[in-house]
Design a protein that fits this description.
This protein has 15 helices and seven strands. By secondary structure, the protein is α/β, with parallel strands linked by helices. Strand 6 and strand 7 form a beta hairpin.
């Protein structure tokens, strides 16, 4: 006999919009739904109690009690699996769904005027400092890698050592821009770097989670993006989307410059990349010939 989740999936394509909301809720909150009344499920989803009862019939159950019984049976038989993180389709669905919602909400809440201002600041900057440590280091590195094709001078700071951070940014000036990236638990070192940049009258852009973040204390442009916690890891799907959007907008504004730099990189790679054993001893004969030529001179 199929379990309740399989039954829901089998009927999903034929369900009405309201029934799909109920199905999604049960699939994503199976353990919770097992002990909820039809009224409570309807309240959570935003439909009537009768809609939940009809949903049970629409997927082949004689009534809501039989559906609930099947949900309880599913939860009981899978309790051991559910204790493990990301080991079943249900957990995977929840994680992916949360990432999708984070990206969707970030896009909906994005202040495009502020975003455009931040893009303009970076485009006009003499030098851009990108600072992100711990889990934000990957975002900073991704951004800096592509900014290198757009901005003439990019400095990437991913060390969580306060000494190394200061050594990397101490020359920052009012002609420069600092992009500070940090999410809960916020980095004090990144905050202090932004504070120092503020004393140097540099333009500061913060990429963080919301208006209550301490990272906005010294920034003139604040770009907010949703995050979430998956087990022990933080979801960076929405922040990475923001970074990609930021880079894409800059590329659109600087297409000829980006193409010129890409072509230059390809030329340098063609002329100076050595393929083979990097052992200098393989060139001993050529070095001997060169030394003889120099001695003859």
């Amino acid at each position: 006999m199929s379990d309740v989740i399989s039954i829901i999936k089998e009927h999903y394509g034929k369900l009405s919009k309201g029934n799909k909301l109920i199905a999604d809720y049960i699939v994503m909150n199976t353990s919770k739904a097992a002990y909820m009344t039809a009224f409570k499920i309807g309240e959570e989803v935003g439909v009537s109690e009768s809609s939940v009862v009809r949903f049970a019939s629409n997927i082949g159950f004689s009534g809501f009690p039989k559906l609930q019984e099947s949900i309880i049976e599913f939860v009981s038989s899978n309790s051991e699996k559910e204790e493990k993180v990301s080991v079943n389709d249900l957990t995977a669905h929840e994680i992916m769904q949360e990432d999708i919602e984070n990206i969707r909400n970030t896009y909906r809440e994005l202040d495009m005027a502020v975003f455009s201002q931040a893009v303009e600041l970076v485009e006009k900057a003499r030098k851009v400092y990108v600072v992100g440590v711990r889990e934000s280091a990957v975002l900073a590195a991704h951004m800096a890698y592509y900014l290198n094709y757009i901005v003439d001078d990019v400095v990437l700071i991913t060390s969580n050592s306060s000494n190394e951070i200061i050594e990397g940014i101490y020359k920052i000036s009012k002609k420069d821009v600092m992009i500070g990236i940090s999410f809960p638990n916020y980095s004090y070192n990144v905050l202090k770097a932004m504070e120092y940049a503020n004393t140097r009258q540099a333009n500061i852009i913060a990429i963080t989670d919301d208006k209550n973040s301490p990272m906005i204390m010294y920034s003139s442009c604040n770009i907010f993006t949703r995050t979430g916690i998956h087990s022990i890891s933080q979801s960076l799907s929405a922040p990475m989307s923001i970074v990609n959007l930021f880079v894409t907008k800059l590329v659109e504004l600087n297409k000829s410059k980006v193409m010129k730099n890409l072509n230059l990189v390809n030329e340098v790679l063609t002329d100076y990349t050595f393929v083979g054993d990097d052992d200098i001893n393989m060139l001993d004969d050529e070095w001997d010939d060169a030394r003889e030529d120099m001695s003859d001179e």
